């Protein structure tokens, strides 16, 4: 890779923006395409596909060959609540290749003994997310059942455009959550993005099964996400 292109790719990665390095294998011309850049026709569709899959490769389009080298920011899962579901989710998220952080101000729950080897922060989400802000490549999982802990990060995730926002609770519980967030000025279009009850409907009963359902829904949301269309800074 040309050193100038490499510097640009590294700059995008530091800013947690996704890019595809497109090389025409016929004439060697190349360019960087950031997620949100307009590329029309079959090449645009192919670029969108690799943004979603995260898999680089050669594509044959209209008699030309292109190598699409995709660079995605590492997807992060931010879990609000150091509960049994979080213990199981931390284990399987690592296997699936996701970075995971658990935030819970309740020090009786957020202990190293219960979450050995996990990025665990025993503090209020309001404070943690100031230093470690959410972005479009984050999934937010709220599982404390406590509005004082869950509501702020849910709002922050919606504002940040997280690719997934899920919250534990029954439909009745979620209805009350919607009422609270509506009273705080959150728009209905944004509220409709919250997955609740959380996780794919696989009939999960135990904490481990619920964790599997949540991770499956996160993967589905990431691979099928709407690509960003705002102008990159």
TrEMBL record:
Ranges of residues in domain XdhC Rossmann: 77-218
Pfam families to which the protein is assigned, alphabetical: XdhC_C
Highest taxon of the lineage: Bacteria
Entry-linked PANTHER family: ALDEHYDE OXIDOREDUCTASE MOLYBDENUM COFACTOR ASSEMBLY PROTEIN, MOLYBDENUM COFACTOR INSERTION CHAPERONE PAOD
The protein, known as: XdhC family protein
Species annotation: Mycoplana ramosa (Mycoplana bullata)
Organism placement in taxonomy: Bacteria, Pseudomonadati, Pseudomonadota, Alphaproteobacteria, Hyphomicrobiales
